Structures are given as structure tokens and as C-alpha cells.
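A.,

Following up on our hallway conversation. C-alpha cells first:
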């Protein structure tokens, strides 16, 4: 697995529940995430044009055009997008032909296929994902401001604290 600045993977779509009570008790969630609105476009939907909204969005159908959302966009395993995507968090399980612009993060899961460029401060390419393009993580200006921690003696391993500082300076 390639992990470029991602601390944890988002919950898979199959385990998310929308509009019904789960059969098993779910872990406690912050109030902000429990009341989020989610728009879902099913697998039989075909859409041409520009799509924009302020709620989370899950695509299982096909879109020919751009997606501009202020929250998260998930392209499901059956989802296909031919156009650019702009969102806070982008998760790809299906197919995208276009550029991905994530203001927070972009994750291409094992079933995901992306032909285009990725622009985000945090990028995750899960083992098995197909990706053809370039990655630009240039939105991270704090990394240039902090010099990396270098060991005092060459060839000597870094302590856990030095390693954390070094990894923290790259984020």
C-alpha cells in the first residue's frame, strides 16, 4: 500500500448505512458527522453536465461532466465519471477520467481506476488501484517552512521522537 500523508482509511461504502437503523450497535460518532446529508445517485442514473452541491455525494451511476462539491465525493464501485472532480475529500472506488482536486485528501482504493492528475495535500493509492497521471501535493506550504530533523551522527538510527518530528515536518 502506498500512503502519502494519510493517517487512516475511510470507512468502505458497503458498511455505511443511510436512512435505516443498523442491525448492530454502531460506534459512537461525533454529532457533526451523524447529521450529515448524503446524496446518492444510483447505478442506473446517467447524467451530463456540471453537478454541484454542499452535501456529501456518492455516485454509483455515470456522469459526463464536472463535479464541484464543498464536502466529500465518493465514486462507488459501479460509478463512472468523465470529467474533473473538485471536493474537500475524494474517494475513488470506481472509474474516473479527469483531474481530481481535493482540498483535504484524495484516496484511490483497490477497485479504483483514475486516468488524470491528482491535486491534494494528502493522497492515498491503495495497493491494486490503477492510476495514470501525476500527483501534485504542492498545496502543503508548511513542509517547506520546517527543516527536516537530521541525525547528529551519520549512520546512527533516529529515535522514535526524532522520527515523529521528521514525519511531522513532511506533512
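Then the amino acids I'd put at each of the 171 positions:
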Amino acid at each position: 500500500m502506498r500512503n502519502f500523508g494519510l493517517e487512516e482509511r475511510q470507512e468502505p461504502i458497503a458498511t455505511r448505512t443511510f436512512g435505516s437503523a443498523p442491525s448492530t450497535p454502531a460506534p459512537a460518532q461525533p454529532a457533526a458527522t451523524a447529521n450529515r446529508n448524503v446524496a446518492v445517485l444510483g447505478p442506473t442514473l446517467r447524467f451530463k453536465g456540471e453537478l454541484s452541491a454542499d452535501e456529501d455525494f456518492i455516485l454509483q451511476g455515470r456522469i459526463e461532466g464536472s463535479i464541484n462539491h464543498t464536502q466529500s465525493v465518493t465514486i462507488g464501485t459501479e460509478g463512472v465519471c468523465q470529467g474533473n472532480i473538485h471536493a474537500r475529500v475524494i474517494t475513488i472506488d470506481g472509474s474516473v477520467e479527469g483531474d481530481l482536486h481535493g482540498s483535504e485528501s484524495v484516496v484511490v482504493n483497490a477497485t479504483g481506476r483514475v486516468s488524470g492528475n491528482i491535486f491534494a495535500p494528502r493522497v492515498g493509492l491503495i495497493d491494486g488501484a490503477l492510476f495514470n497521471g501525476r500527483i501534485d501535493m504542492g498545496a502543503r506550504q508548511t513542509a517547506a517552512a520546517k527543516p527536516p530533523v537530521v541525525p547528529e551522527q551519520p549512520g546512527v538510527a533516529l529515535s522514535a521522537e526524532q522520527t515523529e518530528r521528521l514525519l511531522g515536518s513532511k506533512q
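The CA atoms of residues 105 and 122 lie 5 Å apart. Curious whether your intuition agrees with the design.

B.
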